[in-house]
Amino acid sequence: MSGKGNNKEREFMSFTIAVAGKGGVGKTTLCGLFIQYLCEQGKRPVLAVDADANSNLNEVLGIDVEMTLGDIREEMSKAEASGNSQIPVGMTKADYMEFMFSRCLAEEDDYDMLVMGRSQGAGCYCYVNGLLQAQLQKLAPNYPYVVVDNEAGMEHISRGILPKVDMILLVSDCSRRGVQAVGRIAQLTKELGLKPETMGLIVNRAPEGRLNEGTMEEIEKQGLTLLGVVPQDAEVYEYDCAGRPMVDLPETSPVKQALHSIIDKLKI
Questions:
Q1: Which CATH number applies to 4-266?
Q2: What is the pLDDT of residues 14-24, one digit of tens each?
Q3: d(Cα 99, Cα 237) in Å, to the nearest integer?
Q4: What is the pTM of this model?
Q5: Is the CB of residue 266 less than 8 Å from the CB of residue 227?
Q6: What are the Cα distances from residue 83, in Å, to 75, 105, 152?
């Protein structure tokens, strides 16, 4: 479902949700399930943004991606290096770039997805970050909800790549180091002067869905608001090993049920 056509009728004041946390804590899995539940609750169309250079949100959602913003950067770099223009005869550069950008937007029934991707060669991500920022500024007003899976850290927020952030969901595992990592992200958010309506912690992969005293002590020490706990579940591991989309987990999945409960309490 592309939100682009709706722009002629009205513009949404989009609500932007950023999901952040260190790598390896299941952040992308929860982000994908979050997007799925929003759509199921009628909060559509959603613009799903994979802003992690190591992109795999599409795998969680079970969709194919034709092109990423990083791919565009590579094609343009190769064209400049060879001196051969990639622009078809009779098409302006602006029209060609617009065509390329449209290939980066994967359109599904309830949501569309934009993937940043990564550059293949050496160098920084400044150009790709710039493309992401420009596309978000253009696309976001056409969707009531924008959900961004950030890389491990706060680069996209600290650089102002996201037009605005209304909610920040910090994801950690149940280790002290994981909680300390998201604590630093929360502190950076305050230092940047960002004022999301909601910022809280979701602890993932907790044995039996419980946190021990040491983890709770660290959460309090970091001054974090605990939104909820998602239990460790062997079925998630099995889906991952089999290459199955996490959105295909049954509704009886304790991971889905715990996350749905958290989302319901947020009253988005």
A1: 3.40.50.300
A2: 999 999 998 88
A3: 38
A4: 0.88
A5: yes
A6: 12, 28, 37
